[in-house]
Amino acid sequence: MTELAGLEVGEQGFGGMALAEVYGPTDEASALATLHHALDAGIRLIDTADVYGAGSNERLVGRVLRERRDEVVLATKFGFLRDPAPGGPRFRGDPAYVREAVQGSLGRLGVERIELYYYHRVDPRVPIEETVGALAELVAEGVVERIGLSEVTAAELERAHAVHPITAVQSEWSIWSRDVETAVIPTAARLGVGFVAYSPLGRGFLVSPVTQLPEGDLRRNFPRFDAERLAANAPIGETVRAVAEAEGITPAQLALAWLGEQGRALGVDVVPIPSTRRPERIDENLAASGIRLSAAALAALEPLGARVAGDRARHVGDISQGRERTEAAG
């Protein structure tokens, strides 16, 4: 059983975002079946956010919680504004909003307490100490059990952890998204903070060829998925799939096993939260547990991250990658 700073969550969690309409239309019955299958398969950590589907994803998870609350370690997030004004702020982290957001999530989820409550994106107008101070009050009141941060820099993590212990940092980490290894992960390891890796399969890019994206697909918003960069990045996906074949496992299992190897090498407890709409994919992903990759596989995968064309976000300043560039530039 993998722990995040003492919170038992299992070796993998389930990322709920794909069950909102971010990669195209979905339906509630299939989404509920997928969530139930995840729990049946032994997953404990269910990860959602108030912004996914403008709150609909939390309500969906809430329907499952009404039947199976004791089986779930619940994680949700706040801070992304669902309907920002044109040209206005897209994130909020002021103490008043922290309280407003948590009450909204509790209502949609139908629960009295959230095990792991993440600050989804950093509001540049509010010192992170103020936001974490407000979250610490929720912990003292028993509304929130533990605090998480998403897409923070190493310096922001240090400052936040000085106010209240942080259980987990959640950021993108995969074979083709490795910027967090420079500073965030070493800092998390030193502080005893766990790491929750979202998009561990590269938003599907590492699993199967991605050549054309349908209308409504969230990946259209990411630079590395535009037509020109997709073509430039194609050899990365091809290498991943070739290495997986040589190892006798699927590309998804390779990507998840690689994260496990990296976590051990860098001294951080890592829990990936792959997202899917297909129950059989959950079983495939969980089968990565215990896989150890050969030295040849690790050597073949090592240089791929440096070859990626395109940042992992359109507004790179919103994520740790962009802000750490700014910090490094002085």
UniProtKB/TrEMBL annotation:
Keywords: Oxidoreductase
GO MF terms, alphabetically ordered: oxidoreductase activity
One GO cellular component term: cytoplasm
Span of domain NADP-dependent oxidoreductase: 13-302
InterPro entries per record: AKR, Aldo-Keto_reductase, NAD(P)_OxRdtase_dom_sf, NADP_OxRdtase_dom
One Pfam family recorded for the sequence: Aldo_ket_red
Recorded superkingdom: Bacteria
Stated name of the protein: Aldo/keto reductase
